[in-house]
Amino acid sequence: MRIAILGAGRVGSTLGGRWAAAGHDITYGVRDPSEARHGGLAAVATPAGAVAGADVVLLSLPWAAVEAVVAGVQLGDAVVIDATNPLAAGARELVAHPELSGAELVARWTGSTRVVKAFNTTGSANMADPSYAGGTPMMPVAADDESAKAVAMELAAAIGFAPVDAGPLAAATDLEHLAMLWIRMAFALGRGPGFAFALLAR
């Protein structure tokens, strides 16, 4: 698949590297492709250039930048994976909307019916290496479009996660709160980023 990754921070670059290793064609969309710090990335373009012809677009931007960036691109029929969390400065609270999740706002801003919430509930170190002796970390995925959801679940499985269908896009609120729990446990409570949530079933 041709995957455009908007944002080249820890999450975007880690997922891009893993998916490239799995055989996907990755282009990073960044504000200034000429910056030297992007030299280690496989392919770099403006956001609009990166998404042109993409099958999948991953949003891995700071929340404050999301609306402006998606307003400047043409997504077409691409699957839009929202890996962001609508965090206030300091990452201590969610600030999206009193009634809508960040992913639902992304759907509103883009006009896309193929928005998927995924890859937001754990840290980049787990994305780089999700292997744990005690089990397989889960990757909950929420979307209204079942075919878009299936693509995100396939991409999660390809890098070692156990994809879990978390329901419609409205469930993204739950995923964003799960992300807050992971962040609180990892940092405020001092556990560190070396843990992940898993789903146990009988």
Question: Average pLDDT, to the nearest integer?
Answer: 93
Number of domains: 1
Our count of helices gives 7
Q: Indicate the proportion of strand residues.
A: 15-25%
Helix-residue proportion: 25-40%
Helix/sheet category: alpha/beta
The biggest beta sheet is recorded as: 8 strands, mixed
Radius of gyration: 16 Å
Shape: globular
Lateral arrangement of strands in the main beta sheet? 3-2-1-4-5-6-7-8
The secondary-structure element order is EHEEHEHEHEHEHEH
Low-confidence stretches: none
Write structural notes for this entry.
By secondary structure, this protein is an alpha/beta fold. It has a single domain, classed as NAD(P)-binding Rossmann-like Domain (Rossmann fold, 3-Layer(aba) Sandwich). Helices cover 35% and strands 16% of the residues. It has seven helices and eight strands. It has helices at 10-21, 47-51, 63-71, 102-110, 124-128, 146-158, 172-188; strands at residues 2-6, 25-29, 44-45, 56-59, 79-82, 115-117, 138-143, 162-165. An eight-stranded mixed sheet has the order 3-2-1-4-5-6-7-8, with helices on both faces. The N and C termini lie far apart (35 Å). 44% of the residues are buried.
